[in-house]
Amino acid sequence: MIDLDSLTEKNSAKILNAFIENKVSESHFAQTTGYGYGNTGREILNHVFADSMNSEDALVSENFASGTHAISNAIFSIVRPSQTILFATGRPYDTLGKLVFGVDCCSLKDFNVNVEIGDYLVEDDFSIKLRNRPSVVYIQRSRGYTKRKSLSIFDIKEIIDKIKKKSPKSVVIVDNCYGEFVEEVEPTSVGADLIVGSLIKNPGAGIAPSGGYICGGKKYIDLCKQRFLAPGLTDVGASNHNRELLMGLFYSPMAVREALKTAQYASKIFYEKGFEVQPKPSEKWNDIITSIDLESEEKLRLFCKIIQRFSPVDSFLSPEPWSMPGYNHDVIMSSGGFISGSSIELSCDAPIKPPFTVYLQGGTNFYLSKYALDNAIKEISQI
Prior knowledge:
Blueprint: H1 4-21, H2 40-52, E1 57-61, H3 67-78, E2 84-87, H4 97-101, E3 114-117, H5 123-131, E4 136-140, H6 153-166, E5 171-175, E6 194-198, E7 212-216, H7 218-228, H8 242-272, E8 276-278, E9 290-293, H9 297-309, E10 331-335, E11 347-351, E12 357-361, H10 366-380
């Protein structure tokens, strides 16, 4: 079991040093308008994120609508028509489906990009795909709605070492969502060229109101900035939430600690009641997510309703499954946080399909999360 206090101490010190080295001041919180010329707050925000993630540069913006938006920006910044992108951890998360396979929607397919789906665990197949020298290799750290384990930094290093050995010019992009500050270093420390994530997950701490980040090598970040804005424009753009984005990053190691405690507690109490959980209580967490196979739609719906009932916002609402864009099944979600859709605050979601697995994440206050989970296990055990 990971020492959460030691982890939090080390990541907090790393981030504090990034603030100190970049001389963050109150003037960097000022709102800007129009083209945002001279927006030093935007520049400092990028530098602090870059240093916190051990990378040369960063693109951080409140105007990334989601992690998927930031991932799309990173991929399209690097790959070109007729080149190949290899998804090394299997078929990507459902919300990337249109980006990869869509038709007439500005997808990779529309731009004549060759897409290959690989599995780093299948040695022969993966090696053959790497011999084709893909321009981009994409690694998804978290597992989405699949049964594979989320990747540790050690796992990611092994994959990247294999990629760089067989295809050294491939640009490695890591979807870092849900994994930030769960370990002492990020994928950029083990060879990733770009890492991408959402600010309404770990690095926003429930404080950042929106946004996403891309960190990595300067030459790649320059391309990401030109894709995000326009060719030739890399240092413009007004911003209104530099304070919240910097504050969110500052408090994120503590928020991640609370989320990991929540994840471990949920795993323990449901495992003891005989439910299949992942990770199991004795295992290591590589992101903030715990999955629980609730075995029936009735129990799944009840779990989500209880999480919503014990939320600080919209506790009086009752979640219902719906056909959510980007997913192959109806999805039920509970998210009663202060930031809409925030996954670092206590929340859960699940596709309505056997074995009715719910994916629990977040919890910026462990004791209130425990309160919700205690009520959930009590009511579900009575069915």
